[in-house]
Every structure is written in C-alpha cells, then in structure tokens.
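user: Here is a favour to ask of a fellow structure person. I have my own habits and do not want them to colour yours. Could you put it straight underneath, so I can go through it closely?

assistant:
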Amino acid sequence: MNDTTRCWWAGNDPIYIAYHDNVWSVPVYQDIKLFEMLSLEGAQAGLSWITILKRFDTYREAFEGFDPKTVAQFDENKISLLMKNNGIIRNELKIRSVVSNAKSFIHVQEQFGSFSTYIWQFVGGEPQINCFKTKTDVPAKTPISDAMSKDLKKRGFTFVGSTICYAYMQACGLVNDHIEECFLYPCKNK
C-alpha cells in the first residue's frame, strides 16, 4: 500500500489513503449518502478534510445516519446537544446549516423525485472524467460548481459556495480528478 502512487493530497495517513482509494471520485447516487457528503463538506469549510474524516462515525451518530427527514425535525434542544458534542465541529452556523439544508433537501426530493436526479443533472447524468496531469491542473471550482452553488443557494441551502460544491462533486464522483501519477488515474488509455 505504501509504494502505490496516489494523488498528492492522500499523504500517508491510513484514513486519508482509504478515503482516496475507496470513496473519492466514486459515483454516489443514494440520496442519504449525498446528503451526508453535502453536510460534511459544509462542516469542513475552513478546516482540513482529515479533521472531518476522523469524525465521520461521530457525525453519522450525531446526525442520526443523515436521514434528511429526521435531521429536518431537529429542534433547539437537539441543536443544543450537538453544540456540546466534542466529536463534531461545534460551530453553531454549521450545525444549523445541516438542519436547514435537510429541509431544503426534502423539497428538492419532492420536486425532482430524488436529490440524486437533481444533483447529477449538473454533469448531464454521467461522471465528468478529467484527465489532469498534475495537482496544479485541478481547479478549486468550475463553471459547473458555480452553477450548482447558485442553484442550491436559490433553493435555500447554506454552506454551498462554489469551492465547497466542487469538493462535493469530487467526493461524490460527479467528477473524477485523480491525476496522471495516481494509480486511479481514469485516462490511462487516452
């Protein structure tokens, strides 16, 4: 495992390596997983991703499996309990964002039949395969993430700026940004 070449950001931490190898850029279509990742990307804003990765299990427990219908019902007492939970990022704006985003998420599901149908429309329903050579080629945001961010905000979502949306697209496999030196590079035959 240590002599396998990966994207620069995976480093040597086993948690990062497992995330890189098994999660990042793998297409996600399940609504609950899409909600979970959107929530975690928002929680990560301003922090390193490893901070969130190390808290995945605690987040799942604290937010009751990221079931949007359950999270949308969180009241002030539940938010107060979450603010005391040392296992998550105790930022009130970020916690409240997950709750309000759950409500917006449900509205999108009602309008489109699923959140997956809605979010995948931004890439035409298919993963966007990027053939980036180096880390400097990988953007922090794109016109697609700009459009996604704008539309999510219009629908009431928060903590969904364009950079967060692009990281979300990478995490959920809407885009594949493994670079050329990585063993998961998607363009080996191009």
About this structure: The chain has a mean pLDDT of 96. The chain is about 50% helix and 0% strand. The CA atoms of residues 41 and 164 lie 6 Å apart. The beta strands are 128-129, 175-176.
